Amino acid sequence: xxxxxxxxxCLVLPGYxxxxxxxxxxxxxxxxxxxxxxxxxxxxxxxxxxxxxxGYLIARCSGTVFSGEYGQEGRVxxxxxxxxxxxxxxxxxxxxxxxxxxxxxxxxLGLDDSFSVxxxxxxxxxxxxxxxxxxxxxxxxxxxxxxxxxxxxxxxxTRILAPVLVLLALLLATGxxxxxSWVLQRRKEAQLTAETERKExxxxxxxxxxxxxxxxPWL
Length: 219
Prior knowledge:
Layout: H1 2-12, E1 24-28, E2 33-38, E3 48-54, E4 60-66, E5 70-71, E6 76-81, E7 86-91, E8 100-106, E9 113-122, E10 130-132, H2 142-151, H3 154-207
């Protein structure tokens, strides 16, 4: 009895033969995008599938496509490579209606091993095929990276102009300080010159004043 319980726990509990893959993919209308997922040795012989997630409280699958099959008029396919312990999901000719939540999963006894994938579809010019796999640490879309790059084009110019503006402000402040110091020095020199001239005039007026310290009675 105990071995059966252990076997059931291995098959049902999450983490057994864990399935790993990207959580988000994106592309333009008309693009072909793909994602690769890896799984454990224990899930090698199980059927792999891709389906659209529906429902809120209880999530369910819609339009399930299993490995080796084509769905949505050949626009969706799942290719399993057991010898590599990975499988690839290919989405062709994207439309705006394809955007939404999906399940990438593996059938097994008890609960399926699956995870949710967000698909973003953008209008515009088609881009080359986007491939994502579980070995990549980047799950962000090409569109978001390109839009971020475009929005950041003005940042380098700002960084270049900022030091120049700071330098000009410092030079202006230094020039104003030097000008103020020069004006103050000239004013002090003018005041000193005026004071010297005033003292000289006073001394000259004193030297020309007649002295009547002696008195002459016969005059």
